[in-house]
Amino acid sequence: MFSDYRVSLGSYRHIISPHLTSPSAYLYLISPTAYLYLTSPTAYLYLISPTAYLYLTSPSAFLYLTSPTAYLYLTSPSACHYLTSPSTYLYLTSPSVYLNLTSPSTYLYLTSSSAFLYLTSPSVYLDLTSSSAFLYLTSPSVYLYLTSPSTCHYLISPSVVFTSPHTWCIQL
């Protein structure tokens, strides 16, 4: 029989016992509904249900998997990343608002499946509604609507659009 082990999950510590399912893969049971699936000493899964589990790479950073190709990367209880590939992932701040990060300095802020924001800094970001048209926001009420790299619209309201600093139009 294996002896009990003590591991740390954030600020929580649990007494767990390993249960081997194969020579290189085994389970650490924490409770009847929560357990760890370890594949190596530094990479393991924290399962809370048969279809939802966490993949931990460090005490403060872990993944929440809902399927083999879609999972969440959590850095805190209120902030997590939703990964669709190793290089592309989403950063969720709420169930309906999340970010799609493609690199450490560039990421997407999604509000729906068809409308999202592309942020390059905390105060400057883009709202993309299609592949050729997107919004460049500098504040919640002031943003740019770009249709090409050299052509953009400066919006101060949903119906008022500026095509240049001196000219503007009303969108019907």
Architecture overview:
The chain is an all-beta fold and 172 residues long. It has a domain at 114-172. The chain is built from no helices and 19 strands. It has strands spanning 5-9, 12-20, 26-31, 34-38, 44-47, 53-58, 61-65, 71-76, 79-85, 88-94, 97-101, 107-110, 116-121, 124-128, 134-137, 143-148, 151-157, 160-162, 168-170. The protein has a 19-stranded antiparallel sheet, with no helix packed on it. A hairpin with a 5-residue loop joins strand 14 (124-128) and strand 15. The protein is elongated. The N and C termini lie far apart (74 Å). Residues 1-172 have low confidence and may be disordered. Keywords: Membrane, Transmembrane, Transmembrane helix. The chain crosses the membrane at residues 25-46, 53-74.
Explain the layout of strands and helices.
Layout: E1 5-9, E2 12-20, E3 26-31, E4 34-38, E5 44-47, E6 53-58, E7 61-65, E8 71-76, E9 79-85, E10 88-94, E11 97-101, E12 107-110, E13 116-121, E14 124-128, E15 134-137, E16 143-148, E17 151-157, E18 160-162, E19 168-170
Antiparallel strand pairs: 1-2, 2-3, 3-4, 4-5, 5-6, 6-7, 7-8, 8-9, 9-10, 10-11, 11-12, 12-13, 13-14, 14-15, 15-16, 16-17, 17-18, 18-19
Transmembrane segments: 25-46, 53-74
Keywords: Membrane, Transmembrane, Transmembrane helix
Descriptive tags:
membrane, 0% helix, 172 residues, transmembrane helix, transmembrane
Beta strand count: 19
Order of helices and strands: EEEEEEEEEEEEEEEEEEE
Unreliable stretches (pLDDT < 50, length at least 5) are: 1-172
Helical content band = under 10%
Radius of gyration: 22 Å
State mean pLDDT (0 to 100 scale).
37
Give the terminus-to-terminus CA distance. Answer: 74 Å
**How many strands, what sense, and barrel or not for the largest sheet?**
19 strands, antiparallel
Number of helices: 0
